[in-house]
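Practice problem 4.
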């Protein structure tokens, strides 16, 4: 199974959608990791969760078990002793199943719930018998109220995330940010997304953990419904910055809620245009890109033309010597990848989401076979290595 994971946020209750149909949708969407339906011990039958996990195993999909007994919100309600007992029961019921990737500990702890999330995660890790806990963090945003939500000033948030990982032993740093799909102030909001991506990438690197990010697949609030260029851009920009796991927010539209619209599965259970778009991009990534990046890690990231997210400008002082724009002056994200043997490859991503661009690149040494000109669609990534460009 790929070291890269693509998943989705799942808020549907257990028992609403038949397991076989659900997992068939997940497989066709290109997911290799799922969030299970929401399980509640007082309402649901353990056999239903086992059936879902069995179906995931048959389709080659790992699963994060979403059970209320492992959530930090439950810890806050019942206290440590009862919480630990509940976690033990969840692990007893589901933990030995080979499809289980880990247990969902919660989403977006704020300043008030942070320490409860830390302790809940520690208990899940202690009891989970080798299976991981999973928690997702708030991004940060440049408004006066943000520090009161995340509990620290923006410039201290990275250290707080690092402290969480070090105290809990978490092996995944995960965050959500959808500013890249704002209707308004598009360039500023794109920079906000990349600033957060940079910060969480630093936290993952400092702790030796994997970086996961949530991507937008449903229009809501002031976020537009993403188009195919947005979908391509989100996947490729995340990968180019070292992200190993991606969660589409979200998959199922369960009810008529505010201005939520355009998600992959509508409230009548139909596959939508969004389903087709994310399915295409997920499967494209796993077929052409993941196999060539599996054994490599992002070593450096820089930008040609305008920079974003606090990353440096491209200088041409490594193997990639020259980038020249031939058509449309779009910014380019340049990532240098290295494997355990010291072999090097590069990815370039067109940062523009409205215009294609054509670039001439010039490498030195073993990568010089890639010298030439290449067209890039909006958000398209190309890999340059000793096997040629793709």
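Answer key:
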């Amino acid at each position: 199974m790929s070291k890269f994971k693509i998943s989705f946020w799942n808020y549907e209750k257990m028992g609403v959608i038949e397991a076989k149909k659900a997992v068939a949708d997940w497989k066709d969407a290109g997911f290799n990791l799922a969030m299970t339906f929401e399980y509640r011990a007082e309402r649901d039958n353990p056999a239903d969760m086992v059936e879902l996990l069995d179906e995931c195993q048959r389709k080659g999909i790992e699963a994060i078990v979403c059970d209320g007994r492992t959530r930090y919100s439950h810890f806050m309600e019942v206290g440590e002793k009862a919480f630990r007992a509940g976690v033990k029961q969840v692990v007893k019921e589901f933990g030995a199943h080979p499809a289980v990737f880990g247990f969902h500990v919660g989403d977006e702890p704020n300043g008030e719930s942070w320490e409860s999330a830390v302790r809940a995660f520690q208990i899940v890790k202690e009891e989970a018998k080798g299976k991981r806990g999973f928690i997702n963090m708030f991004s940060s945003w440049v408004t006066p109220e943000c520090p009161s939500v995340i509990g620290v000033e923006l410039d201290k948030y990275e250290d707080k995330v690092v402290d969480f990982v070090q105290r809990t032993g978490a092996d995944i740093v995960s965050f959500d940010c959808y500013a890249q799909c704002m209707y308004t102030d598009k360039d500023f909001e794109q920079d906000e997304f990349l600033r957060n991506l940079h910060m969480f990438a630093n936290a993952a690197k400092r702790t030796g953990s994997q970086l996961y990010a949530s991507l937008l697949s449903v229009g809501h609030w002031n976020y537009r419904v993403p188009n195919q260029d947005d979908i391509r851009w989100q996947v490729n920009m995340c990968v180019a910055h070292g992200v190993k796991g991606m969660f589409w927010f979200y998959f199922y539209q369960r009810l008529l809620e505010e201005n939520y619209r355009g998600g992959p599965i509508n409230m009548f259970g139909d596959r939508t245009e969004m389903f087709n778009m994310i399915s295409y991009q997920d499967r494209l990534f796993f077929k052409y890109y993941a196999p060539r990046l599996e054994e490599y890690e992002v070593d450096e990231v820089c930008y040609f033309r305008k920079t974003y997210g606090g990353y440096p400008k491209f200088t041409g002082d490594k193997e990639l010597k020259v980038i020249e724009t031939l058509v449309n002056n779009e910014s380019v994200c340049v990532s240098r990848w290295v494997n355990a043997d010291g072999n090097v490859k590069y990815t370039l991503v067109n940062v523009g989401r409205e215009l294609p661009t054509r670039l001439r690149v010039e490498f030195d040494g073993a990568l010089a076979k890639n010298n030439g000109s290449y067209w890039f669609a909006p958000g398209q990534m190309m890999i340059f290595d000793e096997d040629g460009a793709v």
